[in-house]
Design a protein that fits this description.
- The structure holds two protein chains of two kinds.
- By secondary structure, chain A is mainly α.
- Chain A has helices spanning 2-5, 8-41, 63-73, 84-100, 130-138, 142-151, 155-186, 191-196, 208-221, 245-270, 283-305, 313-342, and strands at 111-113, 116-118.
- Chain A starts with a helix and ends with a helix.
- By secondary structure, chain B is mostly helical.
- Chain B has three domains: 1-78, Four Helix Bundle (Hemerythrin (Met), subunit A); 80-119; 126-166.
- Chain B contains seven helices and no strands.
- Chain B starts with a helix and ends with a helix.
- The chains are: A mainly alpha, B mainly alpha.
Chain lengths: 343, 166
């Protein structure tokens, strides 16, 4: 019965649905982890009141559900002089690339059942642009910010949007060049080959410099503290000032989805993907190892956010252009020389 | 694939027309973005995913951002047709038709179309990047390097021109 149901087409549908649901669940749980983590770091209690059926509190884990319901039923305000079409469109433009990028990331060990090969990533591993796909789709994410800030017709929004987009395109360069090191040492752009090249030794050890640049750029790309100039909720004003209700929520969800994808990418490129001693000999074990690694990286996002203060804008730009890009170039050259002399 | 080709082709042409006909510069820029994305989709239907990815990263991801940046920084105003004399409009239509016809004619009579039956996609969906790298770093190595030198010269001169004299 089960064997007949398992065809590549059915498996693909199951994968797409499962990945979408799991990523969105991680996004929802992520907002809860963020608030509980902030409370933990600041020695507070945090949200713990919302209870399932009025009985089961589970440390306030149902808080995201309550938040979602609240966002849905809030009044949907569109400012009088805003560009109505673009104003409505921009949360969607921000959200779509954020959920599309995860498709290229392999999240488990591929396996064969009765001669048919099954791979655990949505994009087939044979399309040989794996890493480039993520950067291509990921670079679309900045338009949500630009269009959102411009269509609000608010000078503070535009200033926030300008800051954010300058930051995103600056750090994208460093990020991409850090990844070139990994691509060089693997000799392929395919994500599954990058993962299998890390059997035994994760990339983070030989390419610690590239991993560091990628990790820092990741925070800038997802607009997280210490680089959260896009939002800057505590003193300066960001690009989604004029947004409320579910539209604002879409921007927030896109940010968390970007975090999940960036963590997945970091795990795949530098932390060995689904490889883990002993666990990765099973299919479920490899998926579990991948999810655990993502959870650890996601926790560092929260950890850093509530530990470091925000950079000043000129410090951000100096760090990006004068430190991160030279470091990523250095990493690339070192890897290239090493490869050339080792043969 | 054929349906996708027609949809993407329509999208590309429609947005290209909207780029020149829309009144607000920002909206033009966004239609240009749509046009580039549609062209990237066309590359995928031609089984050239690497070119499509490059199109998205370089043109849609970086260049349009800079264009929108400049438009936002500059004064925003609606383009008005009234200031323009009618003979300029007529002349530009004639020039556009002439140039378009010239491009079309050169393309139709070129070797690309004549040898169309013999052509095959380089490497297909799978070997794309390797094939491109092989051609780029062997046969077209010198032009490739010369272009990079040219780009560096352009960057340096742009910085020099925009620098404040002290």
């Amino acid at each position: 019965m089960m064997a007949k149901l398992l065809t590549p087409e059915v498996f693909m549908i199951v994968k797409v649905v499962a990945v979408f649901i799991i990523v969105l669940t991680m996004v929802a749980v992520g907002t809860w982890v963020e608030r509980r983590g902030a409370a933990f770091i600041q020695d507070r209690v945090g949200p713990n009141r919302v209870a399932l059926f009025g009985k089961f509190r589970i440390m306030g884990l149902t808080q995201p559900v309550a938040d979602g319901i609240k966002f849905f039923f809030k009044e949907d305000v569109i400012p009088a002089n805003a560009d109505r079409i673009l104003f409505v469109l921009s949360p969607i433009i921000a959200f779509i690339p954020a959920t599309m990028t995860f498709a290229a990331i392999p999240f488990g060990r591929p396996f064969d059942v009765s001669g048919v090969h099954y791979f655990l990533s949505i994009l087939p591993p044979a399309t040989n642009i794996g890493v480039l796909y993520i950067f291509a789709i990921g670079s679309m994410g900045v338009y949500g910010i630009i269009i959102g800030s411009w269509s609000s017709n608010n000078k503070w929004s535009i200033l926030g949007g300008m800051r954010a987009s300058a930051q995103v395109i600056s750090y994208e360069l460093a990020m991409t060049m850090a990844v070139v090191g990994v691509v060089l040492s693997t000799g392929s752009l395919q994500m599954d080959k990058i993962v299998s090249a890390q059997t035994g030794l994760w990339n983070v050890i030989p390419q610690i410099l590239g991993a560091l640049v990628f990790y820092v750029s990741m925070f800038a790309e997802t607009n997280r503290l210490p680089f959260d100039f896009a939002e800057g909720e505590s003193e300066i004003i960001g690009y989604h000032t004029e947004y409320g209700s579910m539209k604002f929520s879409m921007f927030a969800l896109a940010e968390y989805a970007n975090m999940v994808t960036a963590s997945g990418l970091f795990v795949t490129l530098y932390l060995g993907g689904w490889h883990f001693p002993w666990l990765d000999q099973f299919i479920w074990g490899s998926i579990l190892a991948f999810l655990l690694k993502i959870a650890v990286v996601l926790w560092t996002f929260v950890w850093v956010r509530w530990t470091l203060p925000r950079f000043r804008y000129d410090q951000l730009m100096r760090l990006g252009w004068k430190v991160m890009i030279p470091l990523s170039l250095l990493n690339m050259v070192v890897v290239a020389i090493f490869l050339a002399y080792r043969g | 694939m054929v349906i996708a080709f027609y949809i993407l082709g329509f999208l590309a042409i429609f947005s290209a027309i909207m780029v020149v006909s829309s009144e607000r510069p920002i909206v033009s820029g966004l239609y240009l973005l749509l046009c580039f994305v549609a062209v990237a989709g066309l590359y995928i239907t031609l089984s050239a995913p690497f070119v499509a990815a490059m199109q998205l990263i370089v043109y849609s991801g970086a260049i349009i951002v800079l264009i929108l940046f400049v438009i936002m920084l500059l004064n925003q105003h609606r383009e008005s047709d009234k200031k323009r004399p009618k003979w300029v409009t007529a002349l530009s239509i004639v020039a556009a038709v002439l140039i378009g016809w010239g491009v079309y004619f050169t393309f139709i009579t070129s070797k690309i179309v004549l040898s169309h039956g013999k052509m095959s996609p380089i490497g297909g969906m799978n070997g794309n990047v390797e094939q491109l790298a092989n051609v780029l770093f062997s046969r077209y190595f010198i032009p490739f390097e010369v272009i990079s030198v040219l780009l560096i010269a352009a960057i340096i001169s742009a910085v020099f021109i925009s620098k404040k004299r002290v």
